[in-house]
Amino acid sequence: MTTASKLFNRIKRQTGKAIGDFNLIEAGDRIAVGVSGGKDSYVLVHILEALRKKAPIKFDLVALNIDAGFPNYRKDLIESHLKQHKFEYLMASTNSYQIIAEKLKPGTSYCAFCARLRRGSLYTQAEKLGCNKIALGHHLDDFIETLLLNQFYGGCLAAMSAKFLADNGKHTVIRPLVYVEEATIQAYSDVIQFPIVNCSCPVAEADDQQRQKMKQLITTLAKDIPEIRHSLIAAIGNVNPHQLLNDCQQDCNLS
Fold first, then answer.
1. pLDDT value of residue 204
2. Distance between CA 7 and CA 9 in Å, rounded?
3. 8-state DSSP, 139
4. Which H/E stretch holds residue 131?
5. Sheet of 60-67: strands edge to edge?
6. What is the pTM of this model?
7. Domain boundaries of the chain, sorted by first residue
8. In this predicted structure, what is the pLDDT of residue 42?
9. Is 2.40.50.140 the CATH number for 3-142+157-200?
10. Strand, coil or helix: 43
11. From 61's CA, which of 92, 108, 201, 222 has a CA 20 to 30 Å away?
């Protein structure tokens, strides 16, 4: 068995477990899979398609790309890949870049504003496509980094959810790669050589500094605690409110 096959099977097995554990996919679902051009979203759409072909239930997938309008965003490479692999897909263009430039208030987060616009576009396009679910490519490391970000910078215990009702109350958002480490995704992407497309966001590197610190922290701790990632992801689902200072809920906005 080739390296690519071993990595693909590992990711598929972990994704299948997440789908079963959290009941992410059900018979009759039509799922819009967000494909941005990054390694995570490419892996997600290919894994879900492989699972769909052998699933005991029937569900449909449609790859959905949201173009925010950033200059030099190579969506043509994404479309070429989706077409080559015979995915049903939609390339949706928006004017988010222009809206952000015109309406972003001083002192507010560029990325948070962009994310809200992107979510709105995802929901709108998913509804047009007749999809009841939206699949996103967040992996295990995203979950635990968000957990730490919210604790260190937001002062609350919160991470991501593998399955939740979207803000519009109409779609269910799922994150099937919750059990898959980023290193595994990166290794598979390196072997397959997906046509990676940078988001072209003008502030992406500057705004990502806090998350990079969490990545470095986890990498350092993993040298002494090899299972730290799996321990942290388990902790997210093993909460005892009676052993916290209180059980009050508050909003965290660092996801």
1. 65
2. 5
3. -
4. none
5. 89-93, 60-67, 30-34, 133-135, 172-174, 163-165
6. 0.91
7. 3-142+157-200
8. 98
9. no
10. helix
11. 201
